[in-house]
Design the sequence.
């Protein structure tokens, strides 16, 4: 769902059932070196990422950016899901790594 | 969650990226890595039992991407490995750089120190400040300290260099700490007195070499007009003879002019008897900023030249020579081994202040030389304090260092937190401050990030190709031995 809204701006819509806003924001952040980016609700069941070239850009650049964003959004959603599944274990690893030994003995 | 039933599959934390259209690279919290096809990656994410992993089961178990049954042992092992990886932090500040003078007998176009004329007044560290700085240094909890003499040209204030060495050795004996010294000199001048002192006190010498004479002299200009390269060659031989054949090392600064000639620079380093080079790009401070239009280059240009030079160096090693690229060596140690590798400019949290500190000639203390350079242009953001009025605890335990530590952990920074290279990487908060005004950085546009990602991409391409000739060279650098000592089958 890629829509060209001006010669230098594009809008990509994502179904909110499949992509959380946090994932879209993380994906959109990656494009901020070359583009001005905005994430906003789009209807009742979608979010849109709107990005506009900072400098001169051509059709190829815009198209590639949109396709990269779609893949990046998928990756970021996977990362969010992974963080939910493994986040508690991650925190436990860090706690065990950096807690002083005597305190760990008392906790056990 | 920690009490999974026997045989259940637990996914352990890891990062990933797409390597290409058909593969993913996965890396766990401690830097153990694996490559998976797209189908295998999907299987890893969706498997709910060990059997569903199929042939992936034991390789992923062995590298702690998954656990079976009770994951407590896996968690404990990962925690131990993490503690090992971060072991460099426990000693706190061990590197102390003392800017004994801002005067210099050369004027380099990219100088971070922004050096002053040798006749200038009021730009030398006084004996009082030097003494106070040594007192502060030996309050560091580190069991060993390294003192680096910097400038300007530190030999222009030789009496204070002597005083610091003698006082530091006395302090080391009193505290039971180890102490080592490095003299960072342009070697434009050399004296028997200096050489004899360096030999007596085990002082290593670090100099700068930008390539063959035309390239070196182009941006490293002496004030008197003589070739700084010719003096370097003569004085290097002098120090090697009087202090020791391995007493000297050299650092390279890459400008636009030697960027396209790095193979020649490497050859010149070998001709000059060096066994390594650090292919170091320009930093955005001091004269390097002012002269960027004439000597600067883009990150993309740097990466192209760096990877070409690295490949050339690998070829030289494969042919029997031993010559290391030191930045690649550091990153390879992090990728291929479980060992702790502190490197002030690339660690998490950043090494600024907690691994190294800079003592300016006026007694001001900064977490890194870059902080001192910003102060010279009116930005005091990174001033920790002054040895004449502040205690060690006030400076090294103060709000600035605490803020730098809290906000330079790549495990928590935006973009870094989910980067596949995070376990191997680090932060440079002072550079981020210069780049975007925020010590946490803004990574999609960060040149520091682009450079390091580019080098990691190149190294991983080499590692995953698994060419025995290349891997033997990489392991020879890690083990600091010639390639013939590295025992690995060639295909």
Sequence:
């Amino acid at each position: 769902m890629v829509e060209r809204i001006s010669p230098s701006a594009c809008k990509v819509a994502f179904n909110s059932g499949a992509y959380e806003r946090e994932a879209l924001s993380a994906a959109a952040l990656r494009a901020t070196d070359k583009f001005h980016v905005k994430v906003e609700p789009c209807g009742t069941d979608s979010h849109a990422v709107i990005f506009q070239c900072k400098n001169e850009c051509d059709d190829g650049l815009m198209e590639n950016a949109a396709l990269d964003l779609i893949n990046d959004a998928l990756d970021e959603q996977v990362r969010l899901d992974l963080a939910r599944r493994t986040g508690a274990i991650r925190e436990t690893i860090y706690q065990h790594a950096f807690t002083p030994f005597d305190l760990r003995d008392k906790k056990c | 969650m920690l009490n999974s039933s026997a045989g259940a599959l637990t996914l352990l934390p890891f990062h990933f990226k797409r390597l290409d259209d058909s593969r993913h690279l996965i890396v766990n919290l401690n830097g153990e890595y694996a490559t998976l096809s797209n189908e295998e990656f999907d299987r890893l994410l969706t498997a709910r039992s060990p059997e569903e992993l199929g042939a992936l089961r034991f390789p992923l178990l062995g590298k702690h991407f998954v656990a079976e049954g009770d994951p407590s042992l896996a968690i404990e092992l990962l925690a131990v490995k993490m503690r090992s990886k971060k072991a460099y932090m426990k000693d706190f500040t061990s590197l102390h750089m003392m800017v004994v003078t801002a005067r210099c007998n050369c004027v380099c176009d990219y100088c971070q120190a922004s050096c002053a004329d040798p006749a200038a007044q009021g730009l030398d560290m006084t004996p009082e400040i030097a003494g106070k700085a040594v007192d502060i240094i030996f309050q560091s909890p580190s069991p060993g300290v390294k003192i680096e003499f910097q400038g300007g040209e530190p030999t222009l204030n030789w009496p204070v260099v002597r005083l610091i060495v003698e006082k530091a050795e006395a302090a080391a004996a009193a505290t039971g700490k180890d102490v080592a010294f490095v003299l960072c000199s342009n070697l434009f001048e050399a004296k028997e007195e200096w050489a004899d002192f360096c030999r007596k006190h085990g002082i290593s010498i670090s100099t700068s070499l930008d390539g063959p004479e035309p390239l070196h002299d182009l941006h490293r200009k002496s004030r008197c007009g003589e070739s700084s390269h010719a003096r370097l060659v003569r004085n290097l031989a002098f120090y090697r003879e009087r202090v020791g054949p391995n007493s000297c090392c050299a650092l390279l600064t890459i400008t636009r002019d030697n960027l396209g000639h790095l193979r020649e620079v490497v050859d010149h380093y070998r001709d000059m008897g060096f066994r390594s080079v650090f292919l170091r790009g320009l930093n955005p401070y001091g004269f390097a900023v002012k002269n960027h239009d004439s000597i600067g280059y883009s990150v993309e240009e740097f990466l192209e030249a760096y990877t070409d030079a690295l490949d050339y160096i690998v070829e030289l090693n494969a042919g029997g020579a031993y010559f290391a690229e030191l930045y690649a060596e550091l990153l390879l140690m992090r990728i291929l081994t479980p060992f702790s590798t502190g490197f002030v400019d690339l660690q998490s949290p950043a090494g600024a202040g907690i691994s190294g500190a800079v003592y300016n000639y006026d007694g001001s203390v900064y977490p890194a030389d870059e902080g001192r350079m910003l102060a010279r242009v009116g930005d005091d953001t990174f001033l920790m304090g002054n040895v004449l009025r502040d205690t060690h605890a006030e400076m090294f335990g103060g709000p600035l260092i605490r803020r730098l530590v809290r906000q330079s952990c790549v495990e928590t920074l935006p973009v870094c937190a989910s980067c596949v290279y995070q376990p191997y990487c680090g932060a440079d908060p002072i550079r981020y401050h210069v780049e975007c005004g925020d010590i946490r950085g803004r990574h999609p546009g960060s040149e520091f990030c682009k450079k390091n990602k580019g080098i990691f991409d190149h190294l991983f391409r080499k590692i995953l190709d698994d060419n025995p000739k290349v891997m033997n060279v990489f392991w020879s650098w890690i083990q600091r031995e010639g390639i013939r000592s590295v025992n690995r089958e060639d295909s």
Q: What stands out?
A: The mean pLDDT of chain B is 93.
